[in-house]
Design the sequence.
């Protein structure tokens, strides 16, 4: 699984580096380095929904520093096949396909 966190201006101002830090800590603490690739990205075109996070070059989610932990935990569960995130409703809003 590949996760891209936008570090464009709007997302930076809304806390993209804090989101990245939360994701990094989760990945490291669960030894998911081989399963989840975390990357930064320039503008994903969803600035009004910052912080934009794209999963596997498809879905773009709006994630905040407050919802980042829950978001990455759901992705982690998906990685280990326990639960799909696609239909989850948490504090994260899917903003595109
Ligand atoms: S700056 Fe992040 S989506 Fe545009």
Sequence:
């Amino acid at each position: 699984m590949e996760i891209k966190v936008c570090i464009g201006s709007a997302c930076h101002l809304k806390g993209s580096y804090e989101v990245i830090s939360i994701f990094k800590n989760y990945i490291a603490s669960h030894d998911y380095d081989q399963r989840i690739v975390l990357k930064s990205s320039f503008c994903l075109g969803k600035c009004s929904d910052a912080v934009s996070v794209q999963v596997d070059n498809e879905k773009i989610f709006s994630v905040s520093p407050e919802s980042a932990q829950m978001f990455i935990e759901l992705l982690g569960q998906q990685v280990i096949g326990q639960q799909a995130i696609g239909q989850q409703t948490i504090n994260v809003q899917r903003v595109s396909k």
Q: What stands out?
A: The first strand starts at residue 2 and ends at 6. Residues 2-94 form a domain with the Glutaredoxin fold (CATH 3.40.30.10).
